[in-house]
């Protein structure tokens, strides 16, 4: 059996993902749960993690007695397990592990929580926590060389500028959260019904939303209300309204984030957001590469583990 | 005792207001309740109204046996009491009562529900229902002559262009609703706490929000997230975050609505929104008149009643 070299944990607001990693980064086992930060008091993180390790051992996996565990995400927030202070821009991806904090614990483990990154500009402050590890994963072994603008769509979409392995700037748009708020709680809930979040990028309504918010970016508050009128006056159905709202919000995100045309753009999305963002970027005439975001956190945790623990454990 | 010539009702989504009106428009009595459309099935409107009339009679008021009742607002929506179809742009304010529907009822009353106004442009459809009556009230006896852009701030802020007594265009911004959604349900709730909706227009954070959204109107989704970072990185308090969010959203509304500089601008606001919108309009260099919005619905219902029933009731 391949030896477990480290354990990576992506501990987010509403989710927990754990990977047992071999020395070469191969995933030997994975666990997922809904035990996110928002449901855990600070003293509930260690028992939660202990439960997962015990379950893995019960499953017959050779989890070391003194495992090396590297964690990214909201577990390091002020209201998380233990705060891992933000590193400031610009941040070399290779330096992220130097900002990790060690967490004393009763599990016999060497536990490190990776820092987030802060943009401390008082005109537009910004923070990320978790995405920096995905970007480290994207950079992989070539992180010294990566230069690109990286889009990580989501509840809080991140656009990060990476120059030769250093994160030099980033911005966050509240795109996914705003879509969910409008769908669940606003007047538009009557026009959106129980529609799935996923929208069809081929729907002409999606394109209409993109057109509106890229041509008239100042009109977002009016355009969003107009969707209600469209369903009242023109009988537009739930799927069309959802697609137009997606187009409006993704178009607004792009209009706000794309102040200059980056030389290289990488879209790191999942199967749900990927097609929408790809269609939107095509619409704006941007060229871009795509990568599957699902593997990036695990890859980034592996890279971090190799940087924190450069030599194998003594057996 | 002055005779009750008509009864005006402003029946909104979440509120009910009723006025007993003299022939000259003087208010003889008023009732308010939270019996809005959203809490009433279609067959619950008549009993609700009957209850108010009975209460007025119990109070000793001489409500006629066959009262003339004119209603505006969401009672005329599809999901209201009975649908009063929208009139199309352009709409002469004087013609609004011609679009009212009569409601058969068991109260012995002559009940009319005023129509809303629709903007049926497929590029940006829009609707109003209730505000047209406030504008009629603003125009008052001079409605043939009123020419102005009228701002009615609120949950759904309306900007209406009136030319010589005709509503020729309007737009709606989801400003107030979005503020409430972000305060109650978004990530920002952690930074806004239980802060009152009312914000201080003299707070420099309000001005910072205005600057941001008028100078960079495409950046709204990023600017809103940035507020969370401001509280995390700079320890900004609830009041400052609320003021900056108000500035961002009101600034975005103005940037989106003010495509041309109107010759005359009238701000029809209440004590809560008035100071914020006045400060925001000053900030953008606009001149404007202000009127108290609280009296407009009642005044408009009176004007409508005079147009519907030009002669006094026979006694």
Description:
Two copies of one chain form a homodimer. Chain A has 315 residues and is α/β, with parallel strands linked by helices. Chain A has two domains: 6-173 and 294-308, 2-keto-3-deoxy-galactonokinase, substrate binding domain (Nucleotidyltransferase, domain 5, 2-Layer Sandwich), CATH 3.30.420.300; 175-284, Nucleotidyltransferase, domain 5 (2-Layer Sandwich). In chain A, 34% of the residues lie in helices and 23% in strands. The first copy, chain A, contains nine helices and 15 strands. Chain A has helices at 45-58, 131-139, 175-185, 189-192, 204-215, 220-234, 238-257, 274-283, 296-308, and strands at 6-11, 16-21, 27-33, 68-73, 87-88, 91-92, 101-103, 110-113, 117-119, 126-128, 148-152, 157-163, 166-173, 265-269, 289-292. Chain A has a six-stranded mixed sheet with strand order 3-2-1-4-8-7, covered by helices on one side. The first copy, chain A, has a six-stranded mixed sheet with strand order 6-13-12-11-14-15, sandwiched between helices. In chain A, helix 3 (175-185) runs antiparallel to helix 7. Chain A starts with 5 loop residues before the first strand and ends in a 7-residue tail after the last helix. The model of chain A has no long low-confidence stretch (mean pLDDT 93). Chains A and B meet through strand 13, helix 3, helix 6 and helix 7 of A and strand 13, helix 3, helix 6 and helix 7 of B.
């Amino acid at each position: 059996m391949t030896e477990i070299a480290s354990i990576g944990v992506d501990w987010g607001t509403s989710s927990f993902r754990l990977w047992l990693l071999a020395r070469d980064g191969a995933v030997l086992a994975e666990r997922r749960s809904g035990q996110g930060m928002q449901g855990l008091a600070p003293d509930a993180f260690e028992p939660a993690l202990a439960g997962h390790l015990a379950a893995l051992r019960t499953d017959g996996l050779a989890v070391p007695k003194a495992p090396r565990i590297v964690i990214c995400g909201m577990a390091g927030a002020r209201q998380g397990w233990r705060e891992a202070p933000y590193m400031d821009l610009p941040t070399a991806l290779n330096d992220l592990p130097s900002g990790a904090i060690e967490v004393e614990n009763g599990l016999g483990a060497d536990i490190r929580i990776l820092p987030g990154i802060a943009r401390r500009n008082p005109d537009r402050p910004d923070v990320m926590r978790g995405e920096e590890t995905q970007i480290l994963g994207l950079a992989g072994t070539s992180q010294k060389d990566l230069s690109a603008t990286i889009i990580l769509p989501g509840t809080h979409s991140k656009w990060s500028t990476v120059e030769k392995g250093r994160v030099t700037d980033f911005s966050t748009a509240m795109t996914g959260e705003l879509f969910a708020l409008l769908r669940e709680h606003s007047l538009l809930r009557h026009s959106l019904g129980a529609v799935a979040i996923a929208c069809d990028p081929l729907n002409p309504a999606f394109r209409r939303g993109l057109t509106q918010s890229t041509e008239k970016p100042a009109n977002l508050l009016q355009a969003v209300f107009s969707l209600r009128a469209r369903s009242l006056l023109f009988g537009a159905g739930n799927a069309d309204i959802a697609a137009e709202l997606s187009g409006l919000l993704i178009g607004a995100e792009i209009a706000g984030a794309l102040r200059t045309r980056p030389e290289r753009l990488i879209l790191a999305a999942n199967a749900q957001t990927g097609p929408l963002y790809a269609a939107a970027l095509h619409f704006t005439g941007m060229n871009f590469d795509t990568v599957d975001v699902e593997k990036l956190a695990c890859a980034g945790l592996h890279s971090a583990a190799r940087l924190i623990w450069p030599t194998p454990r003594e057996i």
